[in-house]
Design a protein that fits this description.
The protein is mostly beta strands. It has no helices and 11 strands. The chain is 0% helix and 53% strand. The strands form 2 sheets. Strands 2, 4, 5, 6, 9, 10 and 11 form a 7-stranded mixed beta sheet that branches.
Amino acid sequence: QVQLVESGGGLVQTGGSLRLSCAASERPFCANRMGWFRQAPGKEREFVASVTWYGNSTSYADSVKGRFTISRDSARNTVYLQMNSLKPEDTAIYYCAAQYSENWKNWGQGTHVTVSS
């Protein structure tokens, strides 16, 4: 079972930047995509961004397009989320997961991001 560990969260002011990391315990050979999701207080978890393990196809939620960039380092089995121009509404717990067929699995424990106004 692949384990995912997120890191890089913290407190940042509006307009600031953070880079989140998602380290996999091993290469998820059967996973076709890796993704970032977030859950704000009192809200449901929502999709943020994803990237294919093979190739370089990316996908973003409309709310983060142009501000966030997802990337992966295959040699390190790590996926990153570069977050720029952060807004208070980006405050949430950020999770990463691996997609197998159409199912997202191997959820990490999450990393907290707080954007102060």
